[in-house]
Write a structure and sequence with these properties.
homodimer, alpha/beta, Rossmann fold, four-stranded parallel β-sheet
């Protein structure tokens, strides 16, 4: 069966087809529970562990979903993106599995470990100055030169359908959840999670979580237009991006609320998860659990699914004292 | 069915009975695999994740096994031990589950987090000076005063039978292993692991792993008598103890070899497991994987089971730079 590119909000069958198609690229990650954190929060928490995903983050799902939908001709020319983070590794590995070229534009000040990991998947890395304009210019040049297909990190229905598969697995394992929450960066995971929940468990309440310091999604959700952040000063480095128009429209339609949390509560939530669950998660991933602890009245006594998005951290630079 | 106290080396049926009896006290922990670490080591590795065990370490198994075998009269008087580590929490929680008193002797300089965790299980903590003599005197006083039953951390067949259940679950999940390795401190886990392997998969090679800095088990294995360490200067703080006569006899009879590793290799192995498997393990737990990396010729192409013993670390004091 050939997958067709998705050009409008994906429907229920499209989400099921996508999960089926990307299985060879991904782990079916476990859902963990923790008595101590249930006691602490007063809720029953179900953690979908995408930190155990291939390349260490849910981004593998979206990149695979988009890459798989290219024609053979497009595939031959390869795929490209600009990212210094998990999306770079996801695109590089999707290309490696498919046996096609990948071109990744990275700021020249990206951490050595990210460069090494991306190069380790066989991608060609193109360095640029660490500004948004330089990234976009470098990507444009790469696409012109190679004819590679640009895979956007979030504002793409093919990517959204891939990210939706994390919540789909969660709801298959635990169909009776009262609420599901994901963190919001560009909104790819959040919009995919929202579609899955609405289609497969219509009664479930869908929450987004975001650092107060970069509360663009909270403001966008309430103002009705895409807002941006004055600064990006948060520990949750995966959540600094603004929404795209595709992700925003889905989020606006389906979310109950966007909950914002302080930097202190993010570090505290991250520490609880490390200490009690014995798993390594990125600061961005701790944001939904921080929201459960910061808004206890919304979750007390409820069965709540939380997507833990990734586990790629710099062990030499941790926020614990 | 009432469990009888074990007064000689436990047999096969005793190990099966013990696993059955302690189930309500423990998690059946997952066995994890990791493509990246298989590639790095050239072996197929199966990690038994006791870092996800109740109280964060395999010690829960032995404490439950010993506590369950007390008579009702003994139980009424409670259980006691001296420990600043995982055994303290294990004894405290076993008592809590059984609804009996627990008395834990701890050095007054024990980390606050250990005191809090142990007290959290409802145990009475008795503080003493941080010397072996002071610990033993304080324990003696507690036992005299309360009539509580002392649960030794390792040199006790009831405890050994409990620790044996980790390897038993591992071999039930993966019956075809070529080798199994555990770290050696006092030898409770190691001797239990050795018995399980010998009874249930007689062909499997059984290895112990130990820091070079505290290589008492290596020297004991080769000299034929229990040796002690001149210093305890290792990051692997769970492995500083000497063997007891019960654990030593079992280890001497069944092990292939005791492999010793450098402090640098322990930190490197720990970092690999944190970074690639995204799980939190104690330095002591990294020792067997460090041995796989340090003695590649012994393990290349083999299916190797490794017991990850625990995940209780001080996040404010990690060995990574």
């Amino acid at each position: 069966m050939t997958l067709q590119p998705i050009t409008r909000v994906p429907d229920k069958e499209e989400l099921l087809r996508t999960l089926d198609a990307i299985r060879p690229f991904i782990h079916r990650t476990p859902v963990m529970t923790c008595t101590a954190l249930n006691r602490l929060s007063g809720a029953s928490l179900f953690f979908k562990c995408e930190n155990f995903q291939k390349i260490g983050a849910f981004k593998m799902r979206g990149a695979a979903s988009a890459a798989l939908r290219l024609t053979d001709e497009e595939k031959a020319k390869g795929i490209a993106t600009h990212s210094s983070g998990n999306h770079a590794q996801a695109v590089a590995r999707a290309a490696q599995v498919l046996g096609i070229p990948a071109y990744i534009v990275m700021p020249d000040n990206a951490p050595g470990i990210k460069k090494t990991a991306t190069a380790g998947y066989g991608a060609e890395i193109v360095f640029c100055a660490p500004t948004q304009a330089a990234r976009e210019a470098a990507l444009e040049e790469v696409v012109q030169r190679t004819g590679a297909h640009f895979i956007h990190p979030y504002n793409d229905y093919n990517v959204i359908a891939g990210q939706a598969s994390a919540a789909l697995e969660l709801l298959q394992d635990y169909p009776g959840l009262d609420a599901v929450m994901a963190p919001i960066g560009g909104g790819g995971l959040m919009s995919g999670t929202a579609l899955t929940c609405r289609y497969f468990t219509p009664s479930v309440k869908i929450y987004g979580a975001e650092p107060e310091m970069v509360n663009d999604a909270y403001r966008s959700f309430h103002s009705g237009k895409i807002e941006s952040n004055a600064s990006t000063n948060t520990l949750a480095d995966g959540l600094r991006t603004n929404l795209g128009e595709k992700t925003f429209a889905i989020i606006r339609e389906h979310l109950e609320e966007v909950l914002t949390v302080s930097e202190e509560s993010i570090v505290e939530a991250m520490r609880h998860i490390w200490e009690r669950m014995k798993i390594i998660i990125e600061p961005s991933c701790a944001v939904p659990f921080a929201a459960v602890l910061s808004y206890p009245e919304a979750f007390r006594g409820k069965k709540v699914g939380l997507i833990l998005t990734g586990g790629n951290v710099d062990l030499g630079n941790l926020p614990f004292k």
